Amino acid sequence: MLLLEWRGDALNRVILGKRIMASPPVSQPQGSPITPVELTANSRFQFRCHPEIACFNACCKSIDLPLTPYDILRLKQRFGMTAGEFVGRYTVPFEMDAHGMPGLKMATKSDSEECIHLTEEGCGVYEDRPAACRYYALGNVGVRKKGSSEVEDAYFVVREPHCLGHEEPHKQTVAEYRREQGLIRYDEMNQRWRKLILKKRSAGSTVGAPSQRSFQLFDMCSYDLDSFRDFIQSPGFREHLEIEAEEMEELLRDEEQLLDFSLRFLAQVLFGGDAVKVRAGARERRIEERREVWQQRREHHVQEHQEALQQQQYGD
User: Fold this and answer.
1) Could you tell me which residues come within 8 angstroms of residue 301 by beta carbon, excluding any fewer than 6 positions away?
2) What is the pTM of this model?
3) What confidence tens digit (pLDDT) does each residue in 167-188 have?
């Protein structure tokens, strides 16, 4: 998946998807794997991958595969792991932008570029494979035109030298391919996260570099649902934010709903909004609590300074 923002006649890359390491389809460099023709949902293209094709699994032997929150949810459920366990065992961290926004990529086998889940029979997690794998050999582009708040989908064909699927005599529309590859639910679940990243990207220098704390929140809400589940049950959360008992029960029961809620909460914290109702007087209480903490810290620093001065005067 490739997320872009449209500004005038230029496209700004936000996050790269599977093995699409060239510039987006505006001014194509020689040798780019991207066919510079924008496709819509009803456009037809020629491609078919199947176990009998000579290049089967070649695309899995040299990967550069960023993961989305829903990818991680599906895969950690498949293995019966916590999110932390899955991330620690099967992913590697990377920075999604110059500010260091945390991202995760699929791990590869030791001393290899081959996907850690590739087996002799093929993909070992096929039913729960990531969205970027499902899209191949299509590229999915999320673009937001200048002056618009809506993210629009566009598609393009990715042609790599090893791939023989483009020679198969089989055509389908983009919409048919997305249904066949099980992408409808993936795109629904990834849409909120995609918009959030685009909004952060479009804000650029106007909001400055995010704080370390905001990165930690982004990491938890995106990649660690188990910690987020504990977080929304904590006294600090429930004292300041209001969730109906029935909704809380549903969030604790259904991880897909929990993920959607975590991304709505993240967007509210980073950019404002009312995804989660704030309890009456909670902001005032929070300000007072922070004022008390600041005062305690100030008094502590003053005391440390006085003790240091006394030690300098009388230490010898």
Assistant:
1) none
2) 0.78
3) 999 999 999 999 999 999 999 9
